[in-house]
Every structure is written in structure tokens, then in C-alpha cells.
Amino acid sequence: MENIALIESFSDFKDNKSIDRVTLMSILEEVFRAALKRKFGSDDNFDIIINPDKGDLEIWRNRVVVADGFSEDDNEEIELSEARKIEPDFEIGEDVSEEVKLIDLGRRAILALRQNLISKIHEHDSTNVFKQFKDLEGEIYSAEVHHIRHNAVILLDDEGNEIVLPKSEQIRSDFFRKGDAVRGVIKSVELRGNKPAIILSRTSPNFLVKLFEQEIPEVFDGLITIEGVARIPGDKAKIAVDSYDDRIDPVGACVGVKGSRIHGIVRELGNENIDVINFTKNENLFIARALSPAKVTSVEIEKFEEEKDGKKGRVNVLLKPEEVSKAIGRAGVNIRLASQLTGYEIDVQREGIEEEDVELTEFSDEIEAWVIEEFKKIGLDTAKSVLEKDVTMLVQRTDLEEETILDVQRILREEFED
Q: Average pLDDT of 252-275?
């Protein structure tokens, strides 16, 4: 009865885990053999018969009968007088099979055996979960908010697997309550100890790609391909699309009538503004499209011999003065995304710069490069364009201190005074 009761208690674990019958039997045998080895020194001469469905467990020890006083190994040999207590007609040289009750292992051994079994089942379960989610890396996954921490949201899926959505992987406008359904892409899966750490992301550019695949049939079917994505999560994104079928307008198909198709994606991403752009292998044209809604007058590309910081080269873009602010975008967002999407550093220049004006780069001996870059991010690439702007406005639109801006304007002013 002790064996049956123990097996029945083991089956409680099986009911809560996704373990098939064959695997459970293998784990049980491994655990029991480890216990027998600790008790008897070897498990080679033991037969273990397990039927977890019925709760049956039998352990048989096989020993050879030897003459009294000639036993060298009590585990593998049994003296004749002892053997005849089991069956009176045993003879020397015959094999004796004797059932071993679990209780014979001792209470401590049984407790250790039970803990070992729990550990093995959890380890198996964790390995299965790890493999399952490793195959899902980069795919959309949904789970429910279980509890909220200051630096992460802990989610549980339908099978009770824990998934972590760190603060860094949340969109700025995300707000969750317990029980909310949350979608994202599986960003990474790692084994930490014996427990899988599953990280979900809503800020990954791949999340936008997967939403397009999920929401737009032509993308899912491969009729429209996504050639590039750039995102500032929760703010703005640019996605380049193409189609090998001339009858399909890739941008129109993705946006839908009055934005009907893309609306669900925008809502999922916290009203992130999404520009869908026609991809082309003509780099000049692609760069011009990437800077939309600005209308570009001309594009001049200077390619690097080797990529620098992930950029293929530098581009000088000429625009009419009224188009510059559109190309730059609020806080430089539009030009930054265009740069990410195309893989080029983009410098914006106004048409008709007066001859007496001077490019900011001419002051690189007196003004640090990163300071010049801050001005260029908001479309100010000449001395006069900086001098014309109000200091308060420059403080708001750049990451520069008022003192730095005043110092720059002083240097520029002195140039013209000279």
C-alpha cells in the first residue's frame, strides 16, 4: 500500500504539468534508481516496474544464491539459508528475485525521493516551456496582466506561463490594469537557473512588422513585402513597403480607405503616427520619400568606404525654406526616422542661402561637433539661421543649455562683426 499511496501522490504533479506518460515513467525510474543506488551502492541488479495510470510500482532486487559464509556482496548475492526463507527449494547458483518495499528505503530516503521527483518534473516542465517560447521569438504573443511592478508588468498566458514586459519595452502611453490582455512580440527567452525568463516587447520595430502581417492580408500572403521599419515607440514610425505585382498599390493596401486598415495598428500602438512609404531601389528617391511630408528639391549622396555607426553614408538634402521644418519634424523626429529607415546621415539645407551666410560646420574649431549636431537636428545648419532664432525656443527644441546657446550665438555674431 505504501508504494501505491506514494505513486498516487506523484500523479498530482502530472495532472498539473504537460508531461506525457512515457516521459513521466522515465523520470520516475530515474528518481527511484538514484534512491536505490544511494541505499544499496548499485542499481544494476534491480528491476523497476511502473504503471502510473494505475498507481502501481514494483521494485525487484535480483541476487545469486551462494553458500552460507561465502557472500562477498550482500546487494548482488544472498546466502542459501536466507534464500530458503523466501522459497525452501532454492539451490546455490540460482537467481532470487525479492520485492523491495519503498518503506524499506527509510523515511528520509522517501522524502528525498519525493523532493527529487518534484525537482525533475519542474526541470522537465521548464525545459519544455523554454523550447516552446524559444521557437516563438520574434512572434506576436498575448497574455493577461497578473500583477504590476514599478519596473515591469508580469503577465500570465492561458497555460500559466509567466511572461515579463519590462518598463523599457513598454510604449510611453501604455497603461495596464490587472486582467488586461496585452499583445507584444517575444523579444528574448533565456534560462536563468532552471527557470525560463520570457521577455515581451511592445517597442520593438518587429512588433510593427508583425501587426502589419496580422492585420493586412496582402502582407500576410506575401503580396506586399516590408522592406524597412524605423520607430520611435508611441510617437512616430516609418515603414517602407513594396509589391512585385504592379496591380497592387502597396501603400494604399496597407492604409485602406480613409485609414481603415491601419487604424487598428495605430490604436494598438498608443496612437503612434505611422508613415507608410513606397520602397524603391533608387536611393535618391527613397530618401526623398522617407522625408515626407516634406517636398525635397534635390538629394546628394556621399557614400562611406565602410559603414560608420550603421550608416552607409551622408546625404545633403536641399529644400525650400518652408519645407525644412516638415523634414525635421517636431524635436527632430522625422529626420531621425528617415535616417534610420534609409541608413544615411541626413543634412538638411535651405535653398537660396545668402552668400554672406556661413555653414555651422565652418565653426568646428570653436564649437563642439555635438553642439552643431543639435542645431542641425532642428534644421539650423547656418550661422544666420541660429542667430535669427529666439534663445527660449532653441532651449525648448534642443538638448542645449541656455548658457551654451548664448555662447554659440556670441561666436557666430563675432564672425559677422569681423
A: 92
For the CA atoms of 333, 334, 340, 342, the dihedral, rounded to the nearest 10 degrees, stands at -170
Cα 69 → chain centroid: 67
| Cis-peptide into 250, omega within 30 deg | no
Please list the alpha-helical segments (H only) found in 196-352. 205-215, 217-220, 250-255, 263-268, 283-290, 321-328, 333-342
* Angle of helix 333-342 versus helix 321-328 axis, rounded to 10: 70
Whether 4 shows a pLDDT value over 50: the answer reads no
Unique residue bearing C-alpha cell 508583425: 210
Q: Can you list the alpha helix ranges (DSSP code H) found in 57-172?
A: 80-86, 107-134
Nine-digit cell at 281?
A: 531601389
pTM: 0.63
Instruction: Give, for 96, the enclosing helix (H) or strand (E).
Output: strand 95-99
Rounded Cα gap, residues 322 and 124, in angstroms: 64
Phi first, then psi: what are they for 60, rounded to 5°? -120, 130
Residues 6+ apart with CB under 8 A from 370: none
Is residue 173 a contact partner of residue 271, using CB atoms and an 8 Å limit?
Answer: yes
Contact (Cβ atoms closer than 8 angstroms) between residue 294 and residue 338: no
* CB 212 within 8 Å of CB 254: yes
- CB distance 336 to 373 below 8 Å: no
Which residues are CB-neighbours of 262 under 8 A, at least 6 positions away?
A: 215, 254, 255, 256, 274, 276
Strands 224-232 and 236-243: antiparallel
Q: Are 113 and 59 in contact (CB under 8 A)?
A: no
- Which is nearest to 91 in space by CA: 100, 105, 81, 101? 81
Q: How many CB atoms lie within 10 A of CB 14?
A: 18
How far, in Å, are 128, 203, 235, 271 from residue 172 at the CA level? 34, 9, 8, 11
> CA 197, CA 86: separation in Å to the nearest integer?
55
* Placement of cell 520593438 in the chain: 204
Our CA angle for 203, 208, 211, nearest 5°, is: 125
Give tens-digit pLDDT for 374-408: 888 888 888 888 888 888 888 888 889 999 999 99
φ/ψ (deg, to 5) at 94:
-80, 160
